Write the structure tokens for this entry.
Amino acid sequence: MINTKQRAYLKGLAQTTDPILSLGKSSLTPEFTEAVVEAIKARELIKINVLKNCVDVPQSLAATLAERTHSEVVQVIGRKIVLYKRNHDNPKIIFPGEKLPKKAK
């Protein structure tokens, strides 16, 4: 679970991030969910663009995706969804003031 300061930090990072996935009229398919899982594993923070031909509400799509991928919704702005999930094996995002765990040799 991320706190308010961490969420604000992630929102700042997301501003300069381009959407890497687009959700269209087929909405949430198992293949799309799997693509989100792979993208989150590789990047930790992803932005998804909800196309105009998708009839679902972006907020409900974000909640469903977060539940299916065990990630957290950072924000939903308009038709953009930002999701975050920490990769505990190889963290890419280090929060300010956070100490990295020492790796066992």
